């Protein structure tokens, strides 16, 4: 490595320390990845695979998780090559142009609104099952801490993600062990299903790995130690894959494919007993809360970035943008227009296409016109044209299938 490159990387670290109060620790960065990914998706993928079965789901988890990590690393390198802190829409405008910026911003909007709508719906169902209250009141009770931490900003999100993500890992571990030890558990259920229904599962799995959107936000938190950004991404995605595989595995071996509810922890907890019912659904609420913070925070800062509203610490503007982020999903959740799983399915289909193409173009533009040569860069195997072609073709084919199945030309997956 040349001396100039090394000096440039050191300069990058000094140059970027502009908001030390928002600095993230490595654990907080990993927790942001895990917390954002482990949201509504982990609750829905068991149900989404109820026709295909576990092994087609596992195949997609491995493939999509690997390809998503690659595109996240593309975005990470682009942020490290850019002196100014920009969100995905800002990076797209800088390195791809205004049409690309609008496409990326639209992708952020669709994915975020779809996700936050699913969280409103899912939280209402969970609190209804736990407390016996109406779903609308349950969603309102969930909304208060969800929007409250978004109001407080990046550091509060990082700390909240860290503590709750650790708690989620503990709860999942206990529930998985209890599942494997229960006498009615049947490992043979993992062999059930039909591979012909595997394609629709892809879009819900794609949604589960939704943390691409928060990479630029994480870059702000790692401004004083940029070399930790790619390590946090890879560590967080590895933990995500493990949890995303364990939850549906446990639900399926305990209940079989025919007894899975759309919010999987409801049927999972009931099968294990009262203590597990409460534990599983508290986990589910935590999962939706942490994912709400990650995607909602990214949506909020993308709005500031796209419309050049200045620093997102301006209280008046932050409050107005927070209303734009938080209120429409609550209304959509009780409009009757969209179901829990379908909200994730179509959000994953549309945003997946944009997120398969734009990081490739952003990285190419950043390598040609970036401000800085960082000490860390994506290695050549993951930037090979064959890998990039696979990413684009896979997501395009999935989007075509989603439209065709919605129009009734191809079978849905559940």
UniProtKB/TrEMBL annotation:
One of its GO terms (cellular component) is plasma membrane. GO terms for biological process: amino acid transmembrane transport. The chain crosses the membrane at residues 24-48, 54-80, 101-120, 126-151, 163-181, 197-215, 236-255, 275-299, 319-337, 343-363, 389-410. It is found in: Cell inner membrane. The keyword Transmembrane applies. Its main location: membrane. Gene3D superfamilies: Amino acid/polyamine transporter I. InterPro entries: Amino_acid_transport_2 (IPR018227). Keywords: Cell inner membrane, Cell membrane, Membrane, Transmembrane, Transmembrane helix, Transport. It is a multi-pass membrane protein. The keyword Transport applies. This is Amino acid permease.
């Amino acid at each position: 490595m040349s001396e100039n490159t090394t000096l440039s990387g050191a300069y990058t670290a000094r140059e970027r320390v502009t908001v030390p109060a928002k600095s993230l620790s490595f654990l907080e960065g990993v927790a942001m990845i895990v917390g954002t990914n482990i949201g509504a998706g982990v609750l829905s993928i068991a149900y989404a695979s109820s026709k295909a079965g576990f092994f087609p789901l596992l195949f997609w988890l491995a493939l999509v998780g690997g390809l998503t990590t690659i595109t996240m690393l593309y975005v990470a390198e682009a942020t490290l090559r850019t002196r100014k802190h920009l969100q995905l829409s800002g990076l797209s405008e800088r390195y791809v142009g205004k049409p690309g910026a609008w496409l990326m911003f639209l992708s952020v909007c669709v994915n975020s609104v779809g996700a936050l709508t699913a969280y409103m719906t899912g939280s209402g169902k969970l609190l209804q099952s736990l407390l016996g209250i109406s779903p609308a009141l349950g969603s309102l009770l969930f909304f208060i801490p969800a929007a409250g931490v978004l109001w407080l900003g990046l550091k509060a999100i990082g700390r909240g993600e860290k503590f709750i993500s650790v708690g989620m890992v503990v709860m999942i571990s206990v529930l998985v062990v209890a599942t494997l030890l229960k006498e009615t558990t049947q490992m043979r259920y993992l062999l059930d299903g039909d591979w012909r229904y595997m394609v629709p599962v892809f879009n819900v799995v794609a949604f589960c790995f939704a943390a691409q959107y928060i990479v630029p936000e994480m870059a702000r938190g790692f401004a004083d130690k940029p070399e930790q950004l790619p390590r946090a991404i890879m560590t967080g995605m590895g933990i995500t894959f493990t949890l995303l595989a364990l939850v549906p595995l446990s639900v399926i071996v305990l209940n079989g494919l025919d007894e899975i509810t759309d919010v999987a922890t409801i049927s999972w907890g009931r099968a294990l007993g009262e203590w597990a019912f409460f534990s599983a659904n508290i986990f589910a609420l935590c999962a939706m809360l942490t994912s709400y913070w990650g995607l909602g925070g990214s949506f909020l800062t993308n709005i500031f970035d796209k419309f050049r509203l200045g620093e997102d610490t301006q209280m008046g503007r932050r409050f107005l943008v927070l209303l734009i982020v938080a209120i429409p999903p609550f209304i959509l959740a009780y409009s009757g227009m969209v179901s829990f799983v379908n909200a994730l399915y179509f959000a994953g289909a549309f945003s997946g296409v944009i997120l398969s193409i734009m990081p490739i173009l952003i990285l190419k533009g950043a390598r040609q016109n970036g401000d800085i040569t960082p000490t860390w860069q994506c290695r050549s195997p993951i930037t090979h044209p064959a890998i990039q072609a696979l990413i684009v073709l896979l997501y395009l084919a999935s989007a075509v299938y989603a439209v065709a199945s919605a129009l009734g030309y191809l079978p849905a997956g559940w």
